[in-house]
Design brief:
Helix content: 25-40%
Order of helices and strands: HH
Structural class: mainly alpha
Number of helices: 2
């Protein structure tokens, strides 16, 4: 009879559930991450709406210096127009609907 140490049991027990997850995983990005898949969606034109621009500039007072990157942002994800931390760290007031509104 083979006697396993606690470490060997731990390693086997922690690795075993991963094998099922790896076997059942769906296609995500392919085996060559530097090549875009042929059937991947492509955004050809992005026109930011006025609401998008207002949200990106919310809580920032005039003059809007240093924000030229927003015109070239396109449809890329940016945390700049998403609410940040709560409370003291919400310096732009993105969580509070009554603070720093610009209309």
């Amino acid at each position: 009879m083979i006697k396993l140490s606690k470490f060997q049991v731990f390693v086997f027990a922690s690795f075993f559930p991963l094998t099922a997850a790896i076997a059942d995983s769906a296609f995500v990005g392919g085996l060559n991450p530097s090549v875009r898949p042929a059937n991947a969606p492509v955004i050809t034109v992005f026109e930011p709406a006025d609401a998008w621009k207002r949200q990106a500039l919310r809580g920032i007072h005039e003059p809007h210096t240093g924000l030229g990157f927003l015109k070239d942002q396109g449809a890329w994800y940016t945390p700049f127009n998403r609410p940040n931390l709560l409370g003291y760290y919400d310096i732009r007031g993105l969580h509070d609907t009554t603070k720093n509104t610009k209309d």
